[in-house]
Amino acid sequence: MPCLLELALLHPDPDDMDWLVPTSPQEVMTRLLRGMYDEVSASQRRVGSAVAAFEWYAGLGRQVQPAPPAAERSAIRVLDGLARIQAAMDEATQACTTEVLTVQPGGIRREAELSEGLHRALALRSRGVRMRDLYTHVARHGQGLLNYLELMGDAVEARTLDEVIDRLILFDRTVAFIPANTDRTMALELRHPAIVEYLVTVFERLWRLAIPLTAPLPDTGIEGISHREQSIAALLAEGHQDAVIAERLGISVRTCRAHIARLSETLGAASRTQLGVRIAQAGLDGAPRPTVSPPLSVPGQESRTAR
Known about the structure:
This protein is an alpha+beta fold. It folds into 3 domains: 1-58, no CATH class; 76-212, Endonuclease Chain A (Endonuclease, Chain A); 227-282, Orthogonal Bundle (Arc Repressor Mutant, subunit A). It has helices at residues 2-6, 25-64, 70-73, 82-95, 111-116, 118-126, 143-152, 193-209, 227-237, 242-249, 253-267, 272-281, and strands at 10-13, 16-22, 76-80, 99-104, 130-136, 156-161, 168-171, 175-179, 186-190, 211-212, 296-298, 301-306. Strands 3-9-8-7-4-5-6-10 form an 8-stranded mixed β-sheet, sandwiched between helices.
């Protein structure tokens, strides 16, 4: 009833104010149409003013200085919408002749994500273009990625890290694509040499730190603690929340908390505060340690040591 009153579809009965009666449909329609007409008229006036202002400023630009060269105008281009992003990526793929570098965050790659760029990857392989891909360690457990790499053969080399930067695709070290919003419906196409060179440097440094997909992950040196749990422990020691840790490592929050529970059980911690202490004692916080130190026994598990 409050909505009907607000829209004036009901009004108090003049003969009895305790009752509500319907408003005449003709009266309601006339009022609504009048409001719509006023809104349309106001919008038309605003559009007219904006067009006039734009034309005036455009005229000043032509008088003051010439338009920048085409190369400068395209140094940074905003791609709004998946269709424009796909078209720009296809264009860069066709022009690529030597190398593609990619960073793919987000853990296990979904089949849809792999299929989306498969036609570009196959086209690049057919021309002898070399590809290097960086993933998180979690991606090792995705069968779709393993199938993709088997299909691509020697054309693709993949390595993994605990965590990587946001998505990055570099073609021939001349053009780069990065996301421009969180849901990746917008992207930036970067052709400025300084920016592209900076991104290439970032990629190469991450590549040197990464572990080849064909090589096993290093052992933590502590029985019962996996490499992933070691990474989680280091991020917990830095004070990050569960959701942040999960996002950075490419796993779900539920999986992250399950690892934290196993970590607490292995280290004999009864609370998060105590877990932080145990992580530091076991040397899992990533802090530098003395070159020579006595082994630390994990509480409740004398046979397990941390070096």
